[in-house]
Amino acid sequence: MDTAFCILNRTEYTGPQFAALPDAQRAQYRRHLVCVKCETTAYFRKEAKSGQGPCFGARPHTNCPLATPESVRGVGGGGEQDILHNPGTRIVIDEAQGGGPVVNGEPGGRGGAGSSGGRFTGTGSRQNAVSHRRLRPLLKNLIYSVAFRTSDIYVELPGRGAWPARDLFVNFSDVSKCRTQTLYGFWGVIYDTGTGYDDSLWINTGDREVVSIVIDPDSVQPFLTRHKITVGELDGSHILVFGTISKSGNGKQYIKPVSIELTALNDD
Ligand SMILES: [Zn+2]
To answer: Which of 81, 99, 123, 209 has the fewest beta carbons under 10 Å from its own?
Structure first.
């Protein structure tokens, strides 16, 4: 979207206008943006590396004329095929990008009672075709395809297990539904970042529940190098991170990534 409305100061901004605000003001206002047409919660996106100027986004953003340009760009925007074009596919996360060294049969996957997911045993016949996917195209499908994120297509993390997409992937705004000690693929928009007392990187999602992703001090540089990005460029990007959710002493929810390799960014 080219414009957004800040409900805090009742002002409409274009992307460049918003980008030009003083840092402190922008940091405050960016959590109070809505679509000028339908008032869906919106977020600010800085100028992208691809050259796209500062603008706004909203997800989900349906039944609104201003949502059209992004829908058109869709999952095909990066030359990636919508996973759902191959119904019945079981998706295996490409270890070249994703796995890292993993221990076969590692415990700690979701085995909890009441899970509609459960470990894929490999004996079922409902999914025959297997497709190998990297994380970034997977993130794009999560962003653009409601059908994919609510599907029961199995997604396998080699050596860790496999789960239906609808159980494995959780938007940041839904983390309250998650169990602790359980692996999920968390995804959504980055609102801003901060630095912990120990130089860890706190990636704040700013949604209703304001969960943060914590990157260990030793992993910050490998994380930035892997994604060829600076901390300042993270704001407004989408991120996918496999990890578990915890609560700090003061009740703040945070996500600990399983590994830097199991993260993906998209700043389209
Ligand atoms: Zn709208």
So the answer is: 123
